[in-house]
Amino acid sequence: MPRAIVCRELGPPETLRLETFASVPLQQGQLRVAVRAAGLNFPDVLMIEGKYQLKPDLPFTPGMEAAGDVSEVAPDVTDISVGDKVIVKLRHGCLADEVVVTPQQVVSLPKLFDYADGATFLAAHGTAYHALVDRAQLRGGEVLLVHGAGGGVGLAAVELGKVLGAIVIAAASSEEKLAVATSRGADHAIRYGHEPFRDAVKQITGGRGADVVFDPVGGPIFEESLRCIAWGARLLVIGFTGGVGMAATNLVLIKGASVLGVRAGEAVRRDPALGVARQAALWRLADAGKIRPNISHRLPLAQAAQAMRLLLERRAIGRVVLLMD
Questions:
Q1: pTM over 0.85
Q2: Residue 68's pLDDT band (cuts 50, 70, 90)
Q3: Residues 82 and 187 in one domain
Q4: Does residue 270 lie within any of the structural domains?
Q5: Do the Cβ atoms of 172 and 192 come closer than 8 Å?
Q6: pLDDT score of 325
Q7: How far apart are CA 256 and CA 252, in angstroms?
């Protein structure tokens, strides 16, 4: 019988259970995907703790993205075939051996990707693309400061920033994380705690500051970022793994800056055409070998709790993936 990670009570990762379930018959307009790999994202951890904006009814299976093979299609599904390699995109439910979805919830696997790459691609790179292109309208030659550059979405922003022609400053908590960010295209690296990052940014930019700040951390990081920005800067609020930052509105005013919230999934739900354009752009870059997830840990499905701990304790560099075989 297929297995799934199930959240029956809100709490830390250790409360999750590995359970078996019976496969359900397909309904009209559905297909079944045999999952080979599932990616973990920080919102998955927040969701099982009841701290995310989406709060599924209990019990539920976490997991926003996966990749695998189409194993069955309903008779009325004509544009997808058994054996197709696909990426699955859901709000939750991907940490399982199989999922039943609609054609709109799958996309083809990029030709250079394996299952693990596919299962860790869309959430991070989709968020980074929406932030840098749709929201900040990052231009070539601008200075992009990426916080949390050792994380999955941070590394995606580093990669895409270089593709867009920016001068990328990566900030992270360790030399190991910064080495990976540099290998992905960062022009400059700043280690938190080694020196005040706002001073380092000013030194790198000759006192001018960053044009765009990509911030999945929040808290004091966001507050200090306001002190090293250029005129007309755009500060992208991606998340708040370090707490909720308070905007010093006087600094926003003085610098003519903009603070922009980034919700890549919600933007697509409200404007599907935006998602179509984003996906096409990301697939062109992936098929050209210009972007690819950095996966630091691959664990079996049964170790989902341990995998989530890697995210909580900031030990992952890039992405963490669960493998079904």
A1: yes
A2: very high
A3: no
A4: no
A5: yes
A6: 79
A7: 6
